[in-house]
Write a structure and sequence with these properties.
six-stranded mixed β-sheet; 6 helices; Purple Acid Phosphatase, chain A, domain 2; single chain; eight-stranded mixed β-sheet
Length: 270
């Protein structure tokens, strides 16, 4: 199976590059399943139903969120009716929505998507390790599902790497989101799981993690609240990871970063 996972979509620049590039990229690579992290898609803060639908129209099969899941008031009600939109699985019981889902692609094969949110330098929520373990106990790679993708949404590289090692050999891809900076460590772990500490953002990199530069520099230099942070609106880069899996085991055969457009050096699978 050919899987494409795209990093945090950041505001208009991220939405524009996704709608421009994803349809053609999906066709060019023959991608079977596309996962998009959309937690910053609405002006940098959360997502809306209209934006979700635009992602699906552009070729996304599922969308994950993160710590900005509830920044848009409508999301708490919208998510209940959209099975393709996932929030972190380790939110407390009773939180609206779902933290994992099984998606059937056109040829009948099934993909399990799980999102968990880390805890170091993040919100105080339930244990992500226990959460992903509980879900995997009910879904076996290569048996009940053909591929498993884990979106590890977190700040600390060490925690994201530890989670990936924890599920190595049990999932097809475990990739980090949240920091908006793509790392250079894409690899296949010893057990056969593809991994990258952070797959970056779909957004403008001539910025500070997607936001306008001046207000953030002022915040650091003056230690005073200034104008509201807002995303840079143009010159976006599409950033993510591409994985091909073995149809028998569901484990990764190859992995490559993906970057198109903007100021970063472009990268596509060979």
């Amino acid at each position: 199976m050919k899987i494409l996972m795209l990093g945090d979509v950041m505001g208009r620049a991220g939405r524009d590059i996704l709608s421009t590039e994803l349809p053609g990229l999906r066709e060019k690579l023959g991608v079977d399943f596309v996962l998009v992290n959309g937690e910053n898609a609405a002006g940098g803060f959360g997502i809306t139903g209209d934006i979700c639908r635009s992602f699906y129209q552009s070729g996304a099969d599922a969308v994950t969120l993160g710590n900005h899941a509830w920044d848009q008031r409508e999301t708490a009600s919208y998510i209940e009716g959209d099975a393709k939109l996932l929030r972190p699985a380790n939110y407390p019981p009773g939180t609206p929505g779902r933290g994992h889902g099984v998606f059937q692609i056109a040829d009948g094969r099934k993909v399990l998507v799980i999102q968990v949110m880390c805890r170091l330098f993040m919100d105080a929520i339930d244990d992500p390790f226990a959460s992903v373990k509980s879900i995997l106990e009910s879904h076996r790679l290569g048996a009940s599902v053909d591929a498993i993708v884990v979106d590890i949404h977190g700040e600390a590289s060490s925690e994201k790497q530890a989670l990936a090692r924890y599920v190595d050999g049990q999932v097809s891809l475990a990739a980090g989101t949240h920091t908006h900076v793509p790392t250079a460590d894409h690899m296949i772990l010893p057990g056969g799981t593809a991994f990258m500490t952070d797959i970056g953002m779909c957004g403008a990199y001539n910025s500070i993690i997607g936001m306008e530069i001046a207000p953030i520099v002022e915040r650091f230099t003056r230690k005073m609240k200034g104008e509201r942070f807002s995303p840079v609106l143009d010159d976006g880069t599409l950033s993510g990871i591409y994985v091909e899996t073995d149809d028998g085991t569901g484990l990764a055969k190859s992995v490559s970063p993906v970057r198109i457009g903007g100021v970063l050096e472009g990268v596509l699978p060979a």
